[in-house]
Structures are given as structure tokens and as C-alpha cells.
Amino acid sequence: MTDDTEPIWLRPERAATGRRAERSRAEITAAAITIADRGGLTAVSMRNVALELGTGAASLYRYVNGRDDLLDLMVDATATELRLEPPTGEQVRDLVAVAKQIHASMARHPWLPELMLTRPTLGPSAVAVLDHVLAVLADHPGDGQAKLEIFALLNAIVATFAINEHATAGRPEHAVAYLRHVAATGRRPRITALLNDLAASDHLPDDRRVAALTAILTGLLR
Description:
Blueprint: H1 25-39, H2 46-53, H3 57-60, H4 67-78, H5 91-108, H6 112-118, H7 124-136, H8 144-168, H9 172-185, H10 189-200, H11 205-220
């Protein structure tokens, strides 16, 4: 029996003895991600992953201890999608480049932001991203704790953007309907001015996100 408190990456992928392994963690992880992409996190269960793989749920326990392991593996697997370029020496620009790739991964996997916020995971692939961020911050005067906090905040900020965008996708009118009602009364001139600014803006969502990230990261790195 393995220790549930030990990260899955510190446990052998296959038992030293017993039946020959028919699956790999990578296959199991890919199946779990497929299920989550299709039906959200609530659809991810040992039973559903087994059905996706055409096997019995009990057999999966030879590879993972349960759903928590699946979620950790899923989060870490998405980090392999990032293509990290060598640091240029411009810290804010390099961190924004990382953030844009994380956001793209979250757009492909709408369940990912929730997990990034509620159960941050540092497996092999996520550690590679952390190492890249540390390389970007090599000349930053902050200590290791400060740099780790910048990494955590980067993920949290991008996840928050992604959650908000997903929540309002296809519902822009719904999102501002009450604001328009308030503006029409004339009692909140600042709200009216805000809506006028939004209506006149020609910035795309990506532009606004990058501008906000740039401003936030510039402040963090001071």
C-alpha cells in the first residue's frame, strides 16, 4: 500500500511485483483530461476513466490511489503544452509570454483554472515551468520566497482572468444589463461614464489582458 501523503511522482509508476502493467500513467492522465474537457471536473472519476480506457475501475488502483492523484496528474500534464523560450532579459515581457501560454492552455481546458487556484500542483512538468520563471527572475533582487510568490501570483492572476472570461463567454449583454439599467436612471454618473468608455473601446480582450498583466507584473517586480 502506498502512502497517500506522498506525491504521486515519488511513487513507482508500476509495482515491482505482480501482473504486468497494461496501462501507463500517461494514458490514464490523457483519458482523465479527455473526460474533463468534455464534461468538466465533476465527470472525472475512477469509474469514468476506466470506461474511457475500456477497463475496470479496480485495475486503475494499480497506478493511482484515487481521484486526487488523477487531478494532480491532469494539472501537471497541461504544463507540457507550454513552449518556453529562453529568457530575453526583459523580465516583464518574458513573464507575460509565460502567462499567455498558461492562458491558452486554460482556454483549451476550461476546468484547469479552478484546479490551479484550489490545488496548485508541482509535478515534473510544472517544476520545469517554475525553473523557467526562476531563470527569468535570475537578476531580480528578491529572495527565493519572493520569486516563488511571483510564480504563484502569475498562475493565480491568469486563472482569475480565465474564470471570468469563461463565466461571461456568450453572455456580454447579460453581464452589463443591470449596469445599463443603473446608468439609465442618471443617478450614477460614474457608471454611465464607465459604460460609455466600454462602448467606445476598440481594444480586444487579449489586448486588455496583456495590458493588465503587464501593469500587475511591473508592480510586482519593483
